[in-house]
Amino acid sequence: MQIRFFHSPEDTRKVRKRLQAGDTLEGELTDETSVISPILLVNAATMPRWNYCYIPDFHRYYFVSPPESVANGLWRVSMQVDTLMTFQGDILNLSIVADKSGQAAHGDEYIDDGSLVSANYTFSQTYNFPNGFNSTPEYILITAG
Fold this sequence. Notes:
The protein is mainly beta and 145 residues long.
């Protein structure tokens, strides 16, 4: 089975990731594997340091864990499916209503959910009573807002 290895500097939470050129290697599935998190044996003199791959037989993109050397020139490579990149066409074609945004410029500052940080300014003003307090009850009003 062919495995196309890449390097991706992108955040794992992005739907579309930039993939830098890599190698195409032959690999063989191990017995304890799945489509979601496959484990493959790959023959290579030296294992390149890629962190991403695509397996055409599965039609899926994967995050690659650091490979383990099994024997001279044989590497065990564990992977975890990247559902965002794998299904990016379906995700980007969805009609949605988003209640969160990664950019503060698109946020709603009237909804206090803790996701937007606003500036806090303190204004204080003091009024002195010229005659001080007397025996009648007095009230001190403090407002914030």
